[in-house]
Design brief:
- By secondary structure, the protein is mostly helical.
- It has one domain.
- Helix content is 75%, strand content 0%.
- It is built from 6 helices and no strands.
- Helix 1 packs across helix 6 and helix 2 packs across helix 4.
- The longest helix has 17 residues.
- The protein is globular and about 40 Å long.
């Protein structure tokens, strides 16, 4: 599987598989700087973490997932809609592991 195929497969997984989407949500949250995690905003232009329009809601979801271990069906619908946007960032930092898991 080449990188383009892996990226498309990852986007599909993020849009449909709750386990993949939740793990990706937490991985992207960990890419946020500590101050961004605490504030739920984007304050650094470093091409890591959530986009500014997603930071409030996805930071909230990541915190809930860490503390409760689950999200509501409505929240998961939002996560499935938003997480495919972050597939490139996930591939950048975790590409080899992702490609192995998709194969």
């Amino acid at each position: 599987m080449n990188k383009t195929e892996a990226l498309k497969a990852l986007q599909q997984k993020l849009a449909t598989d709750a386990r993949w989407a939740q793990r990706a949500l937490l991985a992207i949250f960990k890419n946020q700087t500590a101050d961004e995690q605490m504030q739920g905003t984007v304050s650094h232009n470093n091409a890591m973490g959530f986009r500014c329009m997603d930071s409030d809601i996805l930071t909230s979801f990541a915190g809930q997932l860490q503390h409760r271990g689950s999200l509501s069906p409505k929240q998961m619908n939002i996560v499935h809609r938003k997480m495919p946007i972050y597939a490139r960032q996930l591939m950048k930092f975790h590409g080899e592991k992702i490609q192995a898991a998709l194969s």
